[in-house]
Amino acid sequence: MAEQKNTSKIGEIVYKLKKRQRDFLKIFKNNMGLIHISCDKAKVPPSTYYFWMDNNPLFKQKVEEINKMIKDFGEGQLYQLVKEKNPQAVLHYNKTKNRDRGYGDVIETRHSGEISLLSKKERQEQIKKLLG
Prior knowledge:
By secondary structure, this protein is mainly α. It has one domain (2-105). 64% of the residues lie in helices and 6% in strands. The protein contains seven helices and two strands; from the N terminus they run αββαααααα. The chain has helices at residues 2-5, 19-30, 35-42, 46-55, 57-83, 87-97, 120-131, and strands at 7-10, 13-16. The chain has a two-stranded antiparallel ribbon. β1 and β2 (13-16) form a beta hairpin.
C-alpha cells in the first residue's frame, strides 16, 4: 500500500518516486517549501530538483501538494491573528480579501478626453510657449 502512494500512472507510463526524492519531499515540507534550503539539507543540487520537476510528473504533483498545504498553513496563521484582533493582520486581510470593498492599495484613475503623445521637440515648444 505504501508503494501505491509513491507511484502514479500517467498515460501508459508509471512514475515512481525514488527514495532520494521521497527524502527530499520530507525535507522540503519541513522547510516550508524553500527550494534552496531544502536542497542544501538534502544534499541535492538545485539542478537535480528542477530536473525532477521537469521529468517526473508524480514528483511535481507532490511538490505542488506540499506548496498548497504551506499556503493553507499561512492562511491559517493569518486567520488566527485576525481572530486575535492583531491590527496589522486585520489590515492585511482587508487589503487582500476585501479589495472589492475599497480596502486595497490600488488607486483607480479615470480619464475622459484625449491623450496624445508629443515628441521631445513638440514638448519643448509647448514649454516655451507656456513660459512666454
